[in-house]
Amino acid sequence: MRSYLALAGAAVLIGGCASEKSGNGKADSTPAATTVAAVPQVITITAKDFSFNAPDTVQGGMVTIKLVNQGPELHHIQLLRLTDGKTVADLEQGLKAAKPDSPPPPWAHDVAGPNAPIPGGEVSITEQLEPGTYAIVCFIPGADNIPHVMKGMIRALTVVPATAAAAPAPTSDISVVMSDYSWAVTPEITTGKHTIKIENSAEQSHEMLLVQLPPGKTVADLAAWVGKQVGPPPAKPMGGISGMPKGAVVYLPVDLEPGEYGLLCFLNDAKDGKMHVEHGMMKQFTVK
Questions:
Q1: Are strands 108-111 and 78-82 parallel, antiparallel or unpaired?
Q2: Smallest Cα–Cα separation from 86: which of 133, 18, 155?
Q3: Are 93 and 71 in contact (CB under 8 A)?
Q4: Which whole number is the average pLDDT over 21-43?
């Protein structure tokens, strides 16, 4: 079991309105055709304590996944793409038999989902989904240190081949490249609305939890709190992305007010099993 803490593109109208002469010399009164650019599909997944309400199927291609947290606890979505003919039932059995902090089975491949918003909040990401069998999972543990997946927060999702026109990726204005064990952010993140393009250049999966820090608190304070979880957390979760593999690309819309923020990765390291924050994978930044 692994450790965790925890846009739809706008339609563009393309077309002309100039009339053309028909073969009989009269103005052609047929309205000019208007083309609407394809936009990513939007699916909403609602998290409760302890279940997911989600569609059974979605077409492959560019998809916006919206997580709505209706539970009093933190929840996120980790997508796992299942190969070798495996099912969600196989995954459940594999997770129950696994040791704490061990990775999922080798036939369960990380695909990013929305990371945890505050209870009662929501967050979206947009990414390319390939056809196949997926599991929707919440690995976040409760106060009893039991991951929510062990309490029933797991659900199947089937991605079927697309029949609609392919939608382009959202337009981004911020780039975040993840490596072992840092983030390269360009340009500097400023107040207001942005779409962040997140890429993983590392050999192993990483997540990006975005948090807002109260005055006087740091990302190190949050990392230390996770180890003990005594008292309220010294940060406000703002979403982000769950574990994504090397080469994956995800788009994250944000709307940030001025203040102190942090990026943290709580996944376990593939080599020594330590959480990536223990390797220094946390970054604090000021939004002006």
A1: antiparallel
A2: 133
A3: no
A4: 61
